[in-house]
Each structure stands twice: as structure tokens, then as C-alpha cells.
Amino acid sequence: MACLTSAIEPLRAANEIANQEVFRWRLIAETNAPVRSSSGVMFSPDDSIETPHALTHLFLISGPDAKFANPSKGNGVLRWLDRTGVILGGFSGGIFPLARSGVLTGHSVAAHWCYDEAFKVEFPDIVTTGDVINRDRRRMTVAGGSAVFDLMLGLIEEHLDASIMTEVACWFQHPFVRSPDVQQKRPTIGSDTTEDSLSKPVAQAIQMFAEHIEDPILISDVATAINVSPRNLERLFKRDTGESPLKYYRTLRLEKARQMVRYSNESIMQIALATGYFSSSSLTRHYRRQFGLAPSEERFERNAFRVSESAGPPPT
């Protein structure tokens, strides 16, 4: 819902300010049947993906688990649009069905940090970035939310001018316009701060932790690599995050495991191995202690509340 309104509203405002219809948009779904958003709001599509009108851009908006009811036909249409020169993109979880169609092969994508691990598992050959926006030739991918607004502001500047772009941003009190290479903000585990506010040694250590999810590294080796003593690293972590380096590292691995539990079809054993545990029972024990339920229980509960996959993702 946020991605959809963030895409449409700045374009509507740009048309009004320019006093001309520079931008037009249509809601397209796999069929003409109404589509329910993740917030429960129903949308009636203007067209089905089988009969798309002349398009310059097509953006997919969906959850990561969205699939076409008829994958052969839906994915075929996306590949055909690519061959005809249409710019294709995905917002938030929309990069998943876009990747499943094959049109992201050979391109880099912006993956939201909460989906990143699950995306890497399903599409190991596609390079993900931590950017809020990624534009790679005729592909535009956005981490989601307000970053979609930033992409639209960029398109407004390209098709109109910078003054109208600025006026649109001010209409909506959008505080600043982020360039595509701006990195996503990530929450610091167990804290009300974001990772970009951490001291340099702690940020470096967390980066090393993130690079060693499957093959855990000793905290002492991390301290040596960033040229601080283990005791000083412990002190800095406690000051910046309220946690010890070891606990922070374990929680980070469990958060990655949770992404895969929620957004991938990997078995619990595969998830355990991918996050540095040698058995599913070991992962389950730590997972339950951290999140209050077992991985299998969380997957079952999440599946119970998922929107039916009988309809495809609603691009716009």
C-alpha cells in the first residue's frame, strides 16, 4: 500500500503543477479480478497483465511470496515486455516475482534488508545492494516505502525539471531527495538507534559478523581484524548497543534465520546450516529462546495469515 501510494501521488502532483498530463498510470494484475493489498484494502485493476496497454515502465508491487497463478503466462509476459523495451522494476517484495521471471538475471537489485537473506537464498546469482534505489540499465528496483517516492521524484526531474521535482517534494513535506546510491538505514539490534550511528569499531565488527553468518568467526578474531582489544570491543558494544559482541552476533544470525523461515522455502535444517548451526535442534533451541516459538511454528503461523497466492502480484 505504501509503495503504491508513494508511486502514484508524486506523479499526480507533478501533472497538476505542470498543468499537463505528463504521467499516466494504470493498475495491472494477473486477471481483472480485484486484488487485496497486505493491509486488506481491495483494488480493482484497470487491466490484466495478459492485455497490457502501451507501457514505458512496469513496476511490480507484492510480498516476497507472491507468484503468478499461471507462471508460464505471467512470466512470459514480463519477458516479452522486456524484449519490447519496457523498463521493468520491483518495489519491496516485488523483486521476488520479478526475479522468478528471469528478467533480473545479470542485473543488480536493491533488496530491502528484511528480505535480503531470503532473496540471496532463492537467487544466489543475483547481486543485491544495500541501496535504497538501484537503477541498472532497464531495471529499477527499490527497497520500498518512501524510497519509491524518491524514485518518482527522479523520474519527474528527468521528464520535467528540477524545480517541479522540488515543488512536488515540498507539497508532501518530503524532507530530502535521496540519490540512488544512498544506503538503507538498518535498526541496531536491541536498540532504538540505527547502524549508521554506531562507532566505527562496532560498525566494522557488525559488518564482519554479517559476512560470517554461515561460518561463524571468533569474537577475538574480529577484534584483531579491526585493531582493537577484545575487552575494548566488549566495552564499545555495551555502550553502543547494550549487548555483548557475542550476543549481538548470535541475535544477528537468528534474525537472518528468521528471514529465511518467513520468506523462503528452505527446510529448517538448511536454514540452520546457512546461519552457522550444525543441527536443526540447536537452531530451534536458540530460536525459541529469542523469539518465543520454534521456526516451524513461526512458519506455520505466517502461512496461516498469508494472502492467498491464487492471484498474481499487482504491478503498477
Automatic annotation (TrEMBL):
SMART domains: HTH_ARAC
Entry-linked InterPro entries: AraC_XylS_family_regulators, Class_I_gatase-like, Homeodomain-like_sf, HTH_AraC, HTH_AraC-typ_CS
Gene3D superfamilies recorded: 3.40.50.880, Homeodomain-like
Entry keyword set: DNA-binding, Transcription, Transcription regulation
Residue ranges of every copy of the HTH araC/xylS-type domain listed in the record: 203-301
Name of one Pfam family that matches: HTH_18
Molecular function (Gene Ontology), one example: DNA-binding transcription factor activity
Name listed for the protein in its UniProt record: GlxA family transcriptional regulator
Organism encoding this protein: Shimia litoralis
Upper classification of the organism: Bacteria, Pseudomonadati, Pseudomonadota, Alphaproteobacteria, Rhodobacterales
